[in-house]
């Protein structure tokens, strides 16, 4: 196979016009698909970077009758109701984000902060790099002045000093104690979140219903299902309608319900359709590019039929020829894939300048091993499909070409039989007269044939009624027999049987 690829690369290099045109077309199409597949895989297909992230669900209140469809938020009262009444979750948490001013060394910095309940980090199952995360006691009013730093903020504000744990950090002018530092690369939804603050609800806030300012997530217990979680939440909402009759009619009119769905599905809800349409468009462009290259391959394969027929005539097997044609197509597409990866990388660099961070997990978009394997696999598949075109053309055309080449070889072998006879006749003094008489007879026959053809042309006979100029040589096997007979008569002539040779012409006439 390696030798086939080497030969294929040499042939492609020899045919530079075809190679450059086809490779450039495929590289652009493959590069566009590589870039968009990287985006689709990172945003839509790759699981969230947490253990068993498929079990993390979001519970979102919806009021379609009031014009509020699936938003994603819940209230504090809903959170505590769900903690008490549901049994399918092993952990639940609440969070929201806000911008704050951080000051540790006298220079205020505006950063993004996420308020989280103490169960937040336990739900995600990500341990801190330094220190600890929040305790349940720090989720109560009076004990909530605690923060956990991101790795980036730890480096920028504390220079990566391990003694940062236990020190104070001023947030909007109020002191908070640093209790831990998260590992590098840890992020949850928003990559610009720099620290997490313990969230504590007052008793009044815990009683406020349908004040949807937070997001409620939960991790399913092993073996629990999404349908079970949805059923328990629906039962809880129905019970609350009877528990709080003052809200019942209002909620019925608003068609209030809670949607339980995987967290990742909710995050990509607004961009999923758009990204799939964009990727579908790129695949359509790739299809058009493949069709254009297929036309080039078809033209090139037809132009090489004589070359391939010659290879068959020289002893190459059909499988060997087909394998070589397939190797050329695969080599072409693999070279195009290598160029396409570079094109895709450049496209991602351009996309990065277009606020890609607004996409969910947009900062994670990159060409990784999976994307490279996808590109190479797609290129190999395209190469195999394109390779079938010249193989099919060869299967259809080579038998006819081989028969033509075989006929030429047969005629040449027959000519090889008669040529020594002519040489011997010219060298024999006694047979020279026979040779000259035969040549004169052949010349007279040729003149008669020319006159006959001219006469036929003058009376405009139909072509199919014209007699073939080689009246006695219409069949290839007969020509071979005539020449073989000439050789036998020559042998008799050289043995002294000149009388019989003079009595009969060299070639029979029809």
Topology:
Elements lengths: L1 H13 L1 H30 L10 E7 L13 H10 L3 E15 L5 E8 L3 H5 L5 E2 L14 E4 L1 H8 L9 E4 L2 E8 L11 E6 L4 H5 L7 E6 L5 H18 L1 H9 L3 E6 H5 L4 H32 L1 H9 L4 H35 L16 H59 L1 H30 L17 H19 L3 H6 L7
Parallel strand pairs: 3-8, 5-7
Antiparallel strand pairs: 1-9, 1-10, 2-3, 2-6, 2-9, 4-7, 5-8, 6-7
Beta content: 5-15%
Helix content: 55-70%
Q: Output the number of helix runs.
A: 16
Uncertain runs: 406-426, 459-473, 506-510
Rg, Å, rounded: 43 Å
Order of helices and strands: HHEHEEHEEHEEEHEHHEHHHHHHHH
The geometry reads as: elongated
Main beta-sheet strand count, sense and barrel state: 6 strands, mixed, barrel
The N- to C-terminal Cα distance equals 56 Å
Q: Label the structural class.
A: alpha+beta
Q: What is the quaternary state of this protein?
A: single chain
